[in-house]
Design a protein that fits this description.
Blueprint: H1 4-13, E1 17-21, H2 26-37, E2 41-46, H3 53-68, E3 71-75, H4 81-88, E4 93-96, H5 103-108, H6 110-131, E5 135-141, H7 164-183, E6 187-192, E7 194-196, H8 209-218, E8 224-226, E9 232-233, E10 235-237, H9 238-250, E11 259-263, E12 269-270, H10 271-282, E13 295-297, H11 313-323
Helix pairs in contact: 2-3, 2-9, 4-6, 6-7, 8-10
Length: about 325
Amino acid sequence: MRSAAQFSAMLTGEPRLWLVTGVAGFIGSNLLEHLLWAGQTVIGLDNFSTGCQKNLDDVRRSVGPENWKRFRFVWGDIRDLSQCRSACGGVTHVLHQAALCSVSRSVEDPLTSAMVNVQGFLNMLTAARDAGVRRFVYASSSSVYGSHLALPKREDAIGEPLSPYSATKLSDELFATAYGHCFDIQCIGLRYFNVFGPRQDPNGAYAAVIPKWLAAVLRGEQIYVYGDGETCRDFCFIDNVVQANLRAATTTNPNAVNQPYNIAAGRRTTLNQLFKKIRDGLAERVPGLVDVEPIYRDFRAGDVRYSDPRPPPCSAMKSRMMWKAGST
């Protein structure tokens, strides 16, 4: 398999026109930054419902004015098919990240989650098909495993959805599969486990656990844990997610397309372990932190109890086949 540096060099030598939806978000802005550094031309679509201008400004400072010239921002809402069609014009590769990504948000407001995550997804898929896009890579979620309790999590074995959010992501996978069969569009789904890294928003009711807890500790605020703290997650750094998207978008292996893949670190961490790592890591900077303990609350509706995507040998073989050297 090519290293990240070799892969970036390959991209630089083969410029493409990319569309990144949700480009002002956490994952989208990191994808944008990497693509611009690799000499690619990028169109970014966002309506700032969860993303922010600050993320784009940060990318602009990082890549410099010459690289930034190869980026064009389009304000648009994926719930509007005409805006999706306009953004897809001339595009060769789509990285679809736009979504409302929160289990608890979907429980509170399932209709909006469905309109964005399902109707918006179908609009983007249709627009990409009609524009002749070569590859459509989309963000799915580990939440699709739902009630399936077996560990490790394997791509070919999922359970019933436990939240409206997981139902929307499962629907996306089904639509992508159907479009692949009916319209010969090449799709690859990436089941993100708990992604973390730069530009992840620590604020708001739906903030992810790592930035939220880090910010709370630094502000001297109380940490709350839903459940007994033994709920486990796989925390995956953003750079791995970026590489997965770009490799999925450019692989030439025909057996790799029209199916989903787990994107994770392959390590299980409980919320109790995570709290201790954060507390111990910041203890020198925050006086008295070493004695701080979290407050435990009831489990939240829709949360998956255990998450462990470490692949068994057969899945590992499939992954190696997908990313083998020479087929990126």
